[in-house]
Automatic annotation (TrEMBL):
Annotated organism of origin: Nocardiopsis aegyptia
Name the UniProt record assigns to this protein: DUF397 domain-containing protein
Domain DUF397: from-to ranges: 2-53
Lineage per the UniProt record: Bacteria, Bacillati, Actinomycetota, Actinomycetes, Streptosporangiales
Xref: Pfam families: DUF397 (PF04149)
Amino acid sequence: MRWTKSSYSSTGATCVQVRAPRAGLTEIGDTKNPDGPSLTVPNDDWDHFLDQVAMGGTDFGRLHPEFLPGGGFALTDTNRPGAPVLTYTQAEWDAFKLGVEAGELRSGNPRGTLVKA
């Protein structure tokens, strides 16, 4: 089960990473911390979040991004009390957003760039 990140994240750069741990679920992690915490949500919730990102919407559903001063964002799962908070830089947000707009990180079979193990 390999992680995938946006192809807009340059080689060696860090980014949001996703994978499908089992049918119907998407796991979200951070390439800066490959063995660190992750969020796992139903595909429908992930795809809803991606739709909002792509459209510039604000009804993110269960995944809640908090946009940080100076750029970047923190992401958590509001349906899971005590869920970890994943924090990304402005450059990671920019690459992620471009990948989302290109349709790369959809649930089920995300495409983009495989993250080196």
